[in-house]
Amino acid sequence: MNQGTNKIGRNESCPCGSGLKYKRCCLDKDQQQGRQAAEGKPASAEAANANVPVTAEGMVKWIRELPWKRTEDQQLAELLVERMHGTEPSIIIRAVWVWHCYADETAPAYAKPEAYCAAIEYLMSEAHGLSTTQKGLAAKYGVSPTTLSKRYRELAAFFGDRAADSITAKIPEVALA
């Protein structure tokens, strides 16, 4: 970030912590928010819907507003929200953001989206100290523990290089209504 102007250079690391360059991550979203502010519209759903509880429907709406490169990755995110029902909403939101960053950068090939859903849920449980096992999640998602383990290692390696703690530090705001 340039100190005097607080302007982020296109080729600098994105301040959201994704590890991507700003131009490949949040630049478009920030420009759109700037245009909305100039038109007098709220810059975010959160500004328009302050103090509204996060719901599954709100998360799905937020997922649909994210810029996905592939429809199947968006559908996997929606499945993830559905299958993680009952988990703390902030953890589900982080899980979706982790998938968004990973899918947009790597465009993984997969026949069974449940394998990535299980791996992402396990990654979140590890990051947040939840008591889940690979075997239990594999059964929940109908995948083998070996497949879950492979996908988990892919995700962990990807985010290990990008400081996983900072990737979720600034997640785009969720559409709450």
Pick out its properties.
177 residues, mainly alpha, 9 helices, globular, disordered N terminus
Structural notes for this entry:
The chain has about 180 residues and is mainly α. About 55% of the residues lie in helices and about 0% in strands. The chain is built from nine helices and no strands. It has helices spanning about 25-40, 45-50, 55-65, 70-85, 90-105, 115-125, 135-140, 145-160, 165. The longest helix has 18 residues, at about 90-105. It is globular. About 30% of the residues are buried. Mean pLDDT is about 80; it is low at about 1-5 and about 40-55.
Quick take:
This protein has helices spanning 27-38, 45-48, 56-65, 71-83, 89-106, 113-127, 134-141, 145-160, 164-167.
Largest sheet: none
Structural class: mainly alpha
Q: Number of DSSP helices?
A: 9
- Mean pLDDT, all residues: 78
* Rg over CA atoms: 17 Å
- Which ranges are low-confidence, i.e. pLDDT below 50, for 5 or more consecutive residues? 1-5, 41-53
The helical percent reads 55-70%
N-to-C span: 33 Å
**What gross morphology would you assign?**
globular
Q: H/E series, N to C? A: HHHHHHHHH
Report the sheet-strand fraction.
Answer: under 5%
**Would you count the extended β strands for me?**
0
